[in-house]
Design brief:
This protein is α/β, with parallel strands linked by helices. It is 29% helix and 20% strand. The strands form 5 sheets. Strands 10, 11, 12, 13, 14, 15, 16, 17, 18, 19 and 20 form an 11-stranded mixed β-sheet that branches.
C-alpha cells in the first residue's frame, strides 16, 4: 500500500452519534487539531447500514466519508461481518455458532456466527458488494478492512460436514487417515469419513492428528470466508488494497496462511505497559511487530489498533503514563509500520466498551492530557512522513511457529505444563536485537535463504521439507541455532523413527537420546569447556527440560562448548557447534537462562561481524532498541530508550561505515555539533537518516 503519510487516527463510529450532529461536527475540528489523518469506519455498523433485510441505508455513511475527505481525512472502510444485526439471527438461526458440546449459541457478542453457513455468506457478500459499489472508488477511501479480529470456531452440522470434506481432500482414503492419525491407539479406528466428528470436551480429544487437523481446518475455513468477502468487494468494482486486523499472540488461527490473501498486513496491539519492567514489555511488543511484519517480507505493515489510554477488557486497566502514547507509536514505526491507529476516536456512551480509552472521552473537550499527548504524537509522525514505504531488511530470523505451538501444547511429553515456548523464542529474539540486528519472526514454512542467522527454539514439529531446507541453508554458509526438544514429530504429531532431530542429525552432529523434565524449582547448570571456541566462561542455570545427546567423539567438525554440571548426566554436552559445509550448526540442549543467550549471541554476532551489515554495534544497555528501515538510497535508524536510565551511545565512524548521518527527529534538540554522541533519556527517541551509496 502506497501512502505519502503515516496513517494516524483510528476506529470511528459516527453511527452512535447520528442523533447528535453537533458532536459529529466537533469531531472534525478535533481530528484536525490532533493531526488525525485517517479513520476506520463501518466495522460494527451493519445494524445502521441495513436496519431491515434488504433495506440499505448508506446516506449517513456517504455524508461522513465525504465530509472527512473534504477535510483531508482518509477512510479505511470496514466490512460489517464481525457483528450481525438481530434480524439476521432471528430470521436465519443457522448463522449462529454451535459450541463443541452441541449447544447453539443465542444472539449476542461479536464473532458469534458460522463461517460455513451459506446464508451468512450470502448476506455478508451482498452488503459487501453494495458497499463496494457505493464507496469502493471514492477518493477518500484508501483501504478495505475485512471483518474484525477473526477468531473462534463452530461445531454445527454444516461445519462438521465441511471438516469431513476437508479431510477427504487431504487424505483421499479412510485407511490413509487412520494411519496418519495412529487411530489404532485405544481402538479408535474409523471405518468412514462420515464417522468423524471435530474434537470436543464431550468426545474425542486423544488423537493429536485429529486435533491438529481441526485447527488447520478452522484456519482454512476462516480464510475461505475472508476470500468470499474479498471477492464480493471486487465484484462491486473496487480495487483498493485489502487487510484484516490480527491479534497479539492469538493461536486460534495460523496467521501465516493469511498473508497470501491480503494486500496489507495489520494487527491490533494492546500491551500491558507499566506492568513490571517496561523494557520487557517493549521487547515483547517489538517481537510481535516483527512477527506480523515478516508475514509479508519486504513490505511495511499497519498498526491497526492500539489504545491511547487504558483498555476496559484487561484484568487491570492501567493508564498509559505520560509520554507512552508517543513512545509506543514510534516503536511501531521503527519496526516497519506505516501507521499508528487507535481504538477508539470517540468514547462510546454505553455497553461493554464505554470505558475503553479514546482520543475524545466522555467529557468531550480537547484540553485533556490524553488529547494533548495524542496531538504531540501526531506532530511527531508528520515529521517522519518520509519514512513511509521504507522496509526492514532483517539479517536474522527466529522461527516461532503457530502449528508447532499447537503440537507442543498437546504433546503430553516430558512436561505438561509451562513449556515456555514463547519465552524460549523471546530469549533468542532479545539476544539478536541487543546486538543491533533487525529480526524477522517467521513460521517454519517461511524461506530462510536470505538470512545469515536462523534460530529455531523448541521446533518440536518438523513439517515436510523443513529438514532439507535447513540442511541447504547451513551447507551454503548459514548459521543455524537449534534448541532442545526439536525434530521430534511430523505434521500429524507422529514421532519420527530412526533418531532425532529428524533429518538433521548429520547437520547438527548429534543424536538425541533422552530428555529430562525438571520439577518446578529444580535446576541444572551449563559449565564451560576450557578454551571453548566462543570464549564463554560463566556458569549458567537451566531448568524445565534438559536433553541428552550422543556425539561422534572423533568428529573433527564437532566442538563441545558447554557441558552439564549436575545429575547423572554431568559432563554431557549442553552446547555444541558443528561445522557443516560452509556453515555452522549450534545446539543449545536445555532451557537455559536469558543471560546465556545474551552472551552466546553476542559472541556469535561478533564472530560474524565482517559478513553482517550493522548500522550500529551492540550490545546495547537494557531497554535500548535500535531498528533500521530503508528505501531507495536512504537509511533510517530509530533509537529508543525504554530503560529507566539515561543512555549514552558513542556512534563512532567505523560503526557506520560512511559518514553522513543527520537527525530526522528528536524530542529534545541538542547541540548539533555533538558529533556522533547520542544521549537519550528514559522514554526518548531519536531518528537518524543518511544517504546510502547507489549500487
Amino acid at each position: 500500500m502506497k501512502t505519502d503519510k503515516i496513517l494516524y487516527g483510528g476506529d470511528y463510529n459516527p453511527e452512535q452519534w447520528l442523533h447528535m450532529p453537533e458532536i459529529l461536527e466537533k469531531d472534525i475540528e478535533y481530528f484536525k487539531k490532533a493531526h488525525i489523518n485517517t479513520v476506520t469506519m463501518g466495522m460494527f455498523s451493519w445494524g445502521a447500514l441495513e436496519p431491515e433485510e434488504g433495506n440499505y441505508q448508506f446516506d449517513w455513511l456517504e455524508a461522513r466519508i465525504q465530509k472527512l475527505y473534504e477535510n483531508g481525512i482518509s477512510v479505511i472502510l470496514s466490512t460489517p461481518s464481525g457483528a450481525r444485526p438481530k434480524w439476521l439471527a432471528d430470521s436465519y438461526p443457522e448463522v449462529l455458532r454451535v459450541r463443541d458440546d452441541g449447544i447453539r449459541m443465542k444472539f449476542g457478542g461479536r464473532h458469534n456466527h458460522c463461517y460455513t453457513s451459506p446464508v451468512y455468506r450470502k448476506k455478508v457478500q451482498k452488503i459487501d458488494t453494495q458497499l463496494a459499489k457505493r464507496f469502493g472508488n471514492h477518493p477518500g477511501v484508501i483501504l478495505w478492512h475485512i471483518s474484525n479480529e477473526f477468531g473462534g470456531e463452530c461445531h454445527c452440522p454444516l461445519c462438521q460436514d465441511a471438516f469431513r470434506n476437508w479431510l477427504k481432500k487431504k487424505y483421499q482414503t479412510i485407511d490413509s487417515l487412520n494411519e496418519q492419525w495412529n487411530t489404532t491407539f485405544w481402538s479408535h479406528q474409523y471405518q468412514s469419513f462420515e464417522q468423524i466428528e471435530a474434537p470436543s470436551r464431550i468426545g474425542e480429544s486423544s488423537l493429536h492428528g485429529l486435533t491438529l487437523d481441526w485447527k488447520r481446518f478452522v484456519t482454512d475455513q476462516t480464510i475461505d470466508f475472508m476470500k468470499a468477502e474479498i471477492e464480493a468487494i471486487h465484484k462491486g468494482g473496487s480495487q483498493r488494497p485489502i487487510t484484516t486486523n490480527m491479534m497479539y499472540e492469538y493461536k486460534g488461527l495460523n496467521y501465516a496462511k493469511f498473508s497470501n490473501e491480503l494486500d496489507v498486513i495489520s494487527w491490533d496491539s494492546y500491551p500491558t505497559w507499566h506492568k513490571g519492567n517496561l523494557a520487557d514489555t517493549a521487547q515483547d511488543t517489538g517481537m510481535q511487530h516483527d512477527w506480523f511484519r515478516a508475514l509479508k517480507p519486504g513490505e511495511p505493515f499497519l498498526l491497526m489498533e492500539s489504545s491511547p489510554s487504558s483498555t476496559n477488557w484487561q484484568p487491570i486497566s492501567k493508564l498509559r503514563r505520560p509520554g507512552m502514547i508517543k513512545q509506543a507509536a514510534l516503536q511501531a514505526i521503527a519496526h516497519g509500520s506505516d501507521s499508528s491507529l487507535y481504538f477508539q476516536m470517540r468514547q462510546s456512551r454505553g455497553a461493554s466498551e464505554k470505558f475503553h480509552g479514546a482520543v475524545i472521552d466522555h467529557y468531550g473537550g480537547c484540553d485533556t492530557r490524553v488529547f494533548e499527548e495524542v496531538t504531540q504524537t501526531g506532530e511527531a509522525l508528520e515529521r517522519l512522513a518520509e519514512v513511509t514505504g521504507s522496509i526492514t531488511k532483517a539479517q536474522a530470523a527466529v522461527l516461532y511457529d503457530t502449528e508447532n505451538f499447537w503440537a507442543l501444547s498437546g504433546a503430553e511429553g516430558p512436561r505438561n505444563q509451562n513449556l515456555a515456548y514463547k519465552e524460549a523464542a523471546e530469549k533468542c529474539y532479545h539476544g539478536l536485537r541487543r546486538m543491533g540486528l533487525d529480526v524477522d519472526v517467521i513460521s517454519a514454512e517461511a524461506e530462510i535463504n536470505g538470512y545469515q542467522i536462523v534460530i529455531a527454539p523448541m521446533l518440536y514439529m518438523f513439517r515436510e521439507g523443513l529438514a532439507k531446507k535447513v540442511e541447504q541453508f547451513v551447507q551454503a554458509g548459514g548459521t543455524f541455532v537449534m534448541t532442545y526438544w526439536s525434530g521430534v514429530v511430523n505434521e500429524n504429531d507422529l514421532c519420527y523413527l530412526g533418531g532425532r532431530p529428524y533429518g538433521l542429525m548429520d547437520v547438527m552432529g548429534f543424536q538425541s537420546m533422552e530428555i529430562d523434565g525438571l520439577y518446578d524449582g529444580e535446576e541444572n547448570h551449563f559449565y564451560p569447556m576450557s578454551n571453548n571456541p566462543m570464549g564463554l566462561h560463566k556458569v549458567y542455570t537451566c531448568q524445565r527440560l534438559c536433553e541428552l545427546v550422543r556425539i561422534q567423539e572423533d568428529d573433527p567438525d564437532m566442538k563441545v562448548i558447554m557441558v552439564y554440571q549436575d545429575d547423572f548426566y554431568a559432563g554431557a554436552p549442553a552446547v555444541t557447534c558443528h561445522a557443516y559445509g560452509e556453515g555452522k550448526a549450534y545446539g543449545i540442549l536445555a532451557d537455559v537462562e536469558k543471560e546465556f543467550y545474551e552472551d552466546f549471541i553476542e559472541r556469535l554476532v561478533l564472530s560474524m561481524e565482517e559478513s553482517l551489515e550493522l548500522s550500529i554495534r551492540g550490545p546495547f544497555p537494557e531497554g535500548v532498541e535500535v531498528c533500521r528501515r530503508e528505501k531507495e538510497n536512504t537509511e533510517y535508524l530509530f533509537i529508543q530508550n525504554f530503560g529507566k536510565n539515561i543512555c549514552l551511545l558513542a556512534l563512532k565512524e567505523e560503526d557506520f561505515g560512511k559518514p553522513g548521518w543527520e537527525v530526522l527527529y528528536e524530542e529534545k534538540p541538542e547541540d548539533k555539533n555533538r558529533g556522533r554522541n547520542i544521549k537519550l533519556g528514559a522514554g526518548e527517541t531519536i531518528v537518524l537518516k543518511r544517504n546510502l551509496p547507489i549500487e
